User: What shape does this take?
Amino acid sequence: MKVIFFTSTLTSGGAERVISLLANEFNKKGHEIEVIALTSISPDFYVVDEGVKFIHADKACHGSLLKEMFWVRKHVREVHPDIVIAFMEAVYEFVLLALQGTGIPVITSERKDPSTLGPLRKILRWILLPTSTCCAHVVQTHQIKSYYNKTVQRKTHIIYNPVNERVFDENVQNLTLHRKKRIISVGRLYPQKNQEMLIKAFSALSAKYKDWNLVIYGEGFLRSQLEKLIGELSMRDSIFLPGVSHNVIEEIAQSEIFAMSSNYEGMSNAMIEAMCVGTPVVSTRVSGTDELIRDGENGLLVDVGDEKKMIAALDRLMGDVRLRKKFSNAYVAQRDCFKTENIIEKWLKLCNTFIKDNSNPDKKL
Assistant: This one.
């Protein structure tokens, strides 16, 4: 099978991690794989294996967005892959427009809550997804699937993100025996992640839990603003922004609590990884959390943007070691559904089925 993956970049991020993982695993199984990043503004964080061809489209065509679209169309037709897989809404819209009329099957993948897009982007997606006959759509949650109309739902499939296999490593699991009194959060320093609320919530509890820290891994344009807030709250000795780390899984495993304060998500990779290493979760009610977290049974959920409830949830979990143990134990049964081998098989099955269906003009997905 010949596959071309499209992504915006391979910088640090959930979609980028999944793209690189899928490309590498498909390659290991003997498939011919190419990854095309549409932009090269930021340095690549994830890498693809030597057997995977990697191209920066903007460098290849040296032109405007329109020239890049024509380059993509020409390149894909020359390579003539069995299937194209495009991650992220802006990317798959671009790819669908570029490949109109080619008949090349495209699997598009939504990686965040589609209800958060602006009106113009929503209109473009409502036009492209239902009318692209050679298109299947992958989302991560039932909540996201239910957002679409019946036409799109019929071509929509739910596939969870695979976790980094290091979460199952014995050495990583052993780190959980030596947890630090620390709340960890992982995500780009963007407004979507609402780390400001998390910082304020932790600050409100700092006098009660003087020996606890909050560590937020990630990078983004809000760094200076968040650092200023931490300083204004006199929390520089308790709240840390260490940036991006290749060892974040080990850091999650050594933390007592994983916290997510996002205003919206597709499904958080970091939250899944926290569950797989048994780190108790406190999260806002965003896409994916209701399907994985049962409030009070295996984690705590709070309403989006509700700082008071975030304070209460953190307070409850920080002060109750038995509750943390209960949540940790509850995650064990959920781990297998996130293993890479299981997720890869679902993607391969979808690809093979979709290719077969598109080779038969009398059969629709």
In short: The domain at 165-336 is CATH 3.40.50.2000 (Rossmann fold).
